[in-house]
Each structure stands twice: as C-alpha cells, then as structure tokens.
C-alpha cells in the first residue's frame, strides 16, 4: 500500500464503494423475488386450512433480469468430492450442506392432515371402460431387431437375454419390444434392471451430438448396439436455480433427469425411459469417438481440466462449456426410444404451457375458466389425455419443473395412450419455493385420476414419498442424486396437492372431481 500511487488508491477506493452499492441493491432485488414473512405466514395459514395458494405474481421488468452468463460453470470440483458431499451414512440422513438460502424452510405440513374428507374415499365415477379391451392390450410395437449384429470385435459384449425359447435379444431390443399403449415398460418387467445395468456398464463405442434443442446433449452408442441420450453435469448438485433466472434461462441439471426417472417409477407412471447416472472419461469416451466438428470444441480450462462445448442454438460456447475433473464427467444416460420408423412420435403443445416471455402471460394465467375450453377440444374431450395432464401436473409440481412446453405420445397407439415425460432437466431447481402455478390444470379443471389420488394418499400416510423415492435411487451409480434438502420439499408438495384436490372436492363433490379410468 505505501508504495501505491495516489491514483491507484483512488481507483481501488472507488471500486470498493461501487461493489458495496451493488451488494446492497442485489439484496433489495432478491428480497422482491422471494417470499416476504407475511407471504410465508399467509401460505402457511392457507395450506393448513386446505386452500390452494394464489401467490402474488411479481412484476418483473428488464431491470431485475440477469443474463445467463452469471451462472457460467466454474471449475468443477473433484467428482469424488461431489459424490461424497451428501453421502447418507447407514440410513442416517446427511445434514444438508450450508445453503445460500434467503428464506427459512417452511413447514407446511398441516397438523391434522387426516381430517380431510378424502378418508375414507367414496366410490369414484368410472369412465365407460371395457375391461375386455383392457385385458387384451393392443399389440405391442412390431417385434424387431434394431440392427444387424454388425460390430465386428464387439460380439463378446453383446449380452443377450432370452425373450422366449430360442429368441434372444439385447436389453434395448427388449425395451422397445415391451413398450405398449399403457407405458414404456410393464410394472415388473425384469428387463428394466438389465437395461439399467447395461446403461451403467456397457462400453461406449460411438458418440455424436444430438441436433436440435437449446442445450448440449450427445447420443452415446454402446458396445451392445444400444443407444442413450447423454446430458452432461454442468455444476454441482447443490446449486439451485438462480433467483433472478426465469425457467427458460435456467440450465438443465443432469441429476434432475435421473431423479425424474426414479420419481416416475415410484409413481408407477412408466412414462420416462430408464435414465441413470454414469461417469465417463471425456477424452476416451467422447473426444476419441467424436467427429471433427465436435472434437474441435474441446479445450483445456485455466485449471487444466478438459472442457468442451459442442454446437447448439443457445448454450454452446466457451462461456457455457462443460468441464470434467480433470477429464472425468458425470452425466445422465437415458435409454433411447425406438427409432421413428418403428414408432414415430406425435408432439402435443401443452395447453398449460408457460408464455416463455418475461412480459406476456399465458391465457390460463388470466382466465380461471380456461379449462372449459381444453375439456371440450380434441384430444382432451372424453379422453384419458386430460387425466394424464393432471398426472403431469402432479409429477411436475413435485419436481418444480416449469418447463413443460410440449409432450409426446407414441404414434402407433393413436390418441388414447400415455404421454411421455421427456426433458426433465429443469426440475429440482428450487427447494425453497413451491411453484403452485404448476397445479393450474388441477385447480382449474378440478380433476384427478383415482389411482393417482390413491398413490398420493398412500405417500402422505406413509412411508412418505421422500423415503420411497430415496430408496429407489440408492442403487444408482450417481447416488446420492439429490441433496437432502429436496426431500422435505417433496413431502410438503404431496400435502399441497392433496389439499388442492380436497378443496375441489369440497366445492364440486367427489364424483365430479375424482375419475376412475382404471389406469
Ligand atoms: N430417451 C430418448 N430417446 C429418443 N429421443 C429422445 C429421448 N429423450 C429425448 N428425446 C428427443 O430429443 C429431443 C430433445 O430432448 P430434450 O427435450 O430432453 O432436450 P432439450 O435440449 O431440453 O430440448 P429443448 O431445448 O427443445 O427443450 C426431444 O424432443 C425428444 O424428441
Ligand atoms: Mn428442454
């Protein structure tokens, strides 16, 4: 300091003052984006009285919108550290790491949770449903062998499973062959575990970037001819959605894709292809197998970690690179769905999609009768698809996923089939906020599938969803997939959904609200 010139001292002093002002103003902005104490109090009161909460919408404008570069991935910590950060020791829940939260966790569980008129359940209304049809399920996809067994030198790695005497197929072929109009796999299909094992262990023999979409993802090919969609880890698991980021500028979280699969399985929806966590060597498993265009985007970070960014429409430049430690990278691997020629997919706009704009609101946000229009139009009129939207709302609310703009169905089954719940990378971003808006289909239509209601009630009675869900994830190589702080949020959300349905039942009667379509 004594050797500093006066000019330098003035500059440093100036910087300190500007920094101080910035700190104070961000605090002020943030305080507008989280719940105030009185809002929290309101939420607590409303929820314990069984009402759904209409949260005051914040008026956001350009001034408090932060650009995405703020969230650039930092040099990643050692993968080992990541893996042990939330280790659960012999069933004792780990203490959540120090959280940068600005609000205290909110205890929303009502004390007298069983005093709702949901227990015991009256008889639900059944849709006109032909059980015969149900039992003789429509044919599965045409049995096929996806590829000729062409990979010379890889035959030894071709694990085949016996489908019927004399018919041996890979786990991928079985996965595709077992898809039916009710789900991607059957409840007790032993092939799911085989497929998971192959996703975790099979050698990677090919990689290419998947075109389309806003964020980097790769198609990985395995030594048994299977394929998976790979989404790389971008930051550590405890990094939550930036308070100033909209859902559409949020990064995708690879662990959210993994958790979504297990959550879907726990709910027995079977609408997500098996998705697991696995660590790859970026040099050996990606760069070595990449084409020139992809390989050219590899570089070393200043801390000598291997990074790459690929090419895509938004987040594929060196500011948004994916980095390993030094070249180990964890990611999500989702088993690839059947190719289009076998089962093309239909894409549907989600009626309750968000506006994807900072200023515009979607029609459903301002029109409480919005559901009437949806109910009366194809494909929702008299169709399972309307109830499927309620399931999707349950599923997305529990994850906090606001990014459900479209969904897909499998073409061979027409309109009366399950929706796929693909693209879950933006879930599990906030443990501190329940995005009540996601339940809009439920509270605007006042509708719920009977079987889903039963599942929610079971989870509330216990063992709680958090416990079953954690157990389901235990065997994943990327376990613990979610930091502990997510689990209380998940159970809290189950209660909020039940309270929302309960309010509908009080207004409209059980038979109007709860529909049993035997699914
Ligand atoms: N397991 C899968 N098998 C085959 N295709 C898939 C699978 N998962 C996703 N896809 C296809 O890839 C597309 C892109 O996937 P996804 O939506 O997860 O990526 P994204 O980068 O988030 O895309 P977007 O930016 O458009 O939301 C999907 O629309 C879907 O059709
Ligand atoms: Mn997406």
UniProtKB/TrEMBL annotation:
<feature type="binding site">
    <location>
        <position position="231"/>
    </location>
    <ligand>
        <name>ATP</name>
    </ligand>
</feature>
<keyword id="KW-0479">Metal-binding</keyword>
<dbReference type="InterPro" id="IPR024869">
    <property type="entry name" value="FAM20"/>
</dbReference>
<dbReference type="GO" id="GO:0005524">
    <property type="term" value="F:ATP binding"/>
</dbReference>
<protein>
    <submittedName>
        <fullName>Uncharacterized protein</fullName>
    </submittedName>
</protein>
<feature type="binding site">
    <location>
        <position position="215"/>
    </location>
    <ligand>
        <name>ATP</name>
    </ligand>
</feature>
<keyword id="KW-0325">Glycoprotein</keyword>
<dbReference type="GO" id="GO:0005794">
    <property type="term" value="C:Golgi apparatus"/>
</dbReference>
<keyword id="KW-0333">Golgi apparatus</keyword>
<feature type="binding site">
    <location>
        <position position="408"/>
    </location>
    <ligand>
        <name>ATP</name>
    </ligand>
</feature>
<dbReference type="GO" id="GO:0004674">
    <property type="term" value="F:protein serine/threonine kinase activity"/>
</dbReference>
<keyword id="KW-1015">Disulfide bond</keyword>
<feature type="binding site">
    <location>
        <position position="252"/>
    </location>
    <ligand>
        <name>Mn(2+)</name>
    </ligand>
</feature>
<feature type="active site">
    <location>
        <position position="403"/>
    </location>
</feature>
<feature type="binding site">
    <location>
        <begin position="334"/>
        <end position="337"/>
    </location>
    <ligand>
        <name>ATP</name>
    </ligand>
</feature>
<keyword id="KW-0067">ATP-binding</keyword>
<keyword id="KW-0464">Manganese</keyword>
<dbReference type="Pfam" id="PF06702">
    <property type="entry name" value="Fam20C"/>
</dbReference>
<feature type="binding site">
    <location>
        <position position="423"/>
    </location>
    <ligand>
        <name>ATP</name>
    </ligand>
</feature>
<dbReference type="InterPro" id="IPR009581">
    <property type="entry name" value="FAM20_C"/>
</dbReference>
<keyword id="KW-0547">Nucleotide-binding</keyword>
<comment type="similarity">
    <text>Belongs to the FAM20 family.</text>
</comment>
<feature type="binding site">
    <location>
        <position position="423"/>
    </location>
    <ligand>
        <name>Mn(2+)</name>
    </ligand>
</feature>
<feature type="binding site">
    <location>
        <position position="252"/>
    </location>
    <ligand>
        <name>ATP</name>
    </ligand>
</feature>
<dbReference type="GO" id="GO:0046872">
    <property type="term" value="F:metal ion binding"/>
</dbReference>
């Amino acid at each position: 300091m004594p050797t500093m010139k006066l000019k330098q001292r003035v500059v440093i002093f100036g910087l300190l003052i500007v920094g101080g002002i910035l700190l104070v103003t961000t605090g002020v902005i943030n305080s507008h984006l989280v719940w105030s104490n009185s809002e929290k109090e309101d939420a607590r009161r409303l929820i314990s009285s069984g009402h759904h909460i209409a949260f005051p919408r914040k008026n956001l404008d350009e001034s408090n919108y932060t650009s995405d570069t703020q969230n650039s991935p930092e040099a990643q910590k050692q993968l080992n550290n990541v893996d042990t950060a939330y280790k659960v020791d012999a069933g004792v829940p780990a203490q959540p790491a120090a959280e940068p939260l600005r609000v205290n966790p909110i205890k929303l569980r009502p004390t007298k949770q069983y005093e709702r008129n949901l227990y015991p359940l009256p008889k639900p209304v059944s849709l006109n449903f032909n059980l015969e049809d149900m039992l003789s399920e429509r044919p599965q996809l045409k049995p096929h062998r996806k590829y000729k067994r062409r990979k010379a030198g890889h035959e030894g790695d071709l694990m085949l499973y016996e489908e019927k005497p004399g018919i041996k197929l890979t786990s991928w072929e079985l996965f595709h062959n077992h898809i039916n109009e009710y789900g991607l796999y059957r409840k007790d299909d032993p092939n799911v575990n085989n497929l998971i094992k192959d996703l975790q262990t099979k050698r990677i023999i090919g990689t290419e970037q998947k075109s389309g979409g806003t964020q980097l993802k790769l198609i990985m090919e395995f030594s048994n001819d299977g394929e998976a969609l790979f989404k790389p880890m971008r930051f550590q698991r405890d990094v939550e959605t930036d308070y100033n980021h909209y859902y559409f500028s949020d990064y995708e979280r690879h662990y959210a894709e993994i958790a979504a699969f297990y959550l879907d399985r726990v709910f027995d929806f079977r609408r997500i292809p098996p998705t697991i966590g696995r660590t790859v060597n970026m040099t050996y498993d990606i760069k070595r197998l990449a084409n020139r265009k992809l390989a050219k985007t590899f570089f070393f970070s200043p801390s000598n970690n291997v990074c790459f960014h690929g090419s895509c429409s938004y987040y594929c430049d060196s500011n948004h690179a994916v980095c390993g430690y030094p070249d180990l990278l964890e990611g999500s691997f989702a088993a690839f769905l059947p190719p289009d020629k076998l089962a093309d997919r239909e894409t549907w706009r989600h009626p309750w999609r968000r506006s994807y704009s900072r200023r515009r609101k979607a029609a459903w946000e301002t029109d409480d009768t919005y559901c009437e229009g949806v109910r009366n139009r194809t494909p929702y009129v008299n169709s399972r698809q309307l109830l499927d939207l309620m399931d999707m709302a349950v599923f997305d609310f529990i994850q906090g996923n606001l990014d459900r703009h479209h969904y897909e169905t499998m073409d061979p089954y027409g309109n009366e089939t399950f929706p796929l719940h693909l693209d879950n990378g933006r879930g599990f971003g906030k443990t501190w906020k329940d995005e009540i808006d996601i339940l809009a289909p439920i509270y605007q239509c006042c509708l719920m599938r009977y079987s889903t209601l039963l599942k929610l009630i079971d989870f509330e009675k216990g063992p709680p969803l958090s416990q079953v869900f954690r157990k389901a994830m235990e065997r994943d190589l990327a376990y613990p997939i979610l930091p502990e702080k997510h689990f209380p949020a998940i159970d809290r959300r189950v209660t909020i959904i039940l309270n929302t349905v309960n309010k509908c039942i009080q207004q409209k009667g059980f038979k109007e609200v709860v529909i049993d379509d035997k699914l």
